[in-house]
Amino acid sequence: MRYVIVIAAIAFFLIWDGMYNQGRYLDTTVRELRHVVRYVTGKA
Fold this sequence. Notes:
Layout (H helix, E strand, L loop, with lengths): L1 H19 L3 H18 L3
């Protein structure tokens, strides 16, 4: 049941971000994740 809640929360966030913010928060999150991955793997 907790997985259903987590998936629903993520889906709600993605829909909300896409409709009201043109995906700004998702774009920022992806950029930060790429930065972290580059930092951790040493590919700066």
